[in-house]
Amino acid sequence: MKNIAVIGAGTMGNGIAHVFAQNNYKVNLIDIAQASLDKGLATITKNLDRMVAKEKISEADKNNTLANITLHTVLADGVNGVDLVVEAATENVDLKLKIFKDLDAICDAKTILATNTSSISITQIAAVTNRPEQVIGMHFMNPVPIMKLVEIIRGYNTSNEVTATIMELSTKLGKTPTEVNDYPGFVANRILMPMINEAIETLYNGVAGVEEIDTVMKLGMAHPMGPLQLADFIGLDVCLSILNVMYDGFKNPKYAPCPLLVNMVMAKKLGIKSGEGFYDYSESRKAEKVASQFAK
């Protein structure tokens, strides 16, 4: 297995492409928009430059990694002849079902189809294909080049052979694969998202402010990042989508999204990606921080 296709050049997609390419796999990075591909490749280059500066890799390693990546805007061209497709498109069930139905029709019979979904049923995705035994979840963590965990999610029909292949492949990437079963949210988000949602409820109910809530969890629970800051980092729209998947899947009110989260998403306050969420990431705010540092 040496030829990989990654669908989606966003945060997760370009990170997955980076990791495969750095480990000397040939990667076709696919997105419908050339601008997204250019931005994704620029992100990969920037991250590689940072690694060179820290002497974690050489300039030759960086150049080799970039040479392993080819950009495509046409799905059929990008998945032609590959051994594995990793879908990392937007966390939208209808979009993912369409992508996998298309992949099943155009990919080689031997090609394994994986999804980076963080919550959507692998069994449901596999059901739109004629190869459900070859469909599996590969849930990478963000930022992909740094985080070691990959949740490997077996659908109801995923074969033992495919599971073993993907577990071994993840290990070759320097990751720690952990096999879990196919239930809404899997393990990572089934535990993480209710915590984030409860932090938002705590803010919504006026128990404490944003920084106070995050400080308690960082200093009191040894979390590297507070839950509200983490929600901004993930994207509030993504958090809402995952909670809705779990709420629909389990029909349990404990997964119901906090009204504050719903309102913030409707208001396009999505976190880092929009420049504002629970924290302000705008350029004016950055300038204020720099000015205050010089004032000190």
UniProtKB/TrEMBL annotation:
3-hydroxyacyl-CoA dehydrogenase NAD binding domain: residues covered: 3-182
Family: Belongs to the 3-hydroxyacyl-CoA dehydrogenase family.
Enzyme class: oxidoreductase
The protein's Enzyme Commission number: 1.1.1.157
Keyword Transmembrane found: no
InterPro entries xrefs: 3-OHacyl-CoA_DH, 3-OHacyl-CoA_DH_CS, 3-OHacyl-CoA_DH_NAD-bd, 3HC_DH_C, 6-PGluconate_DH-like_C_sf, 6PGD_dom2, NAD(P)-bd_dom_sf
Site (Important for catalytic activity): H139
Keywords annotated in UniProt: NAD, Oxidoreductase
Pfam family, one: 3HCDH_N
Organism of origin: Cellulophaga lytica (strain ATCC 23178 / DSM 7489 / JCM 8516 / NBRC 14961 / NCIMB 1423 / VKM B-1433 / Cy l20)
One BP term from GO: fatty acid metabolic process
Domain 3-hydroxyacyl-CoA dehydrogenase C-terminal: 185-281
Residues that hold NAD(+) according to the record: G8, A9, G10, T11, M12, G13, D31, E91, K96, S118, N142, K273
Designated name of the protein: 3-hydroxybutyryl-CoA dehydrogenase
MF terms (GO), sorted A to Z: 3-hydroxybutyryl-CoA dehydrogenase activity; NAD+ binding
Ranges in a coiled coil: none
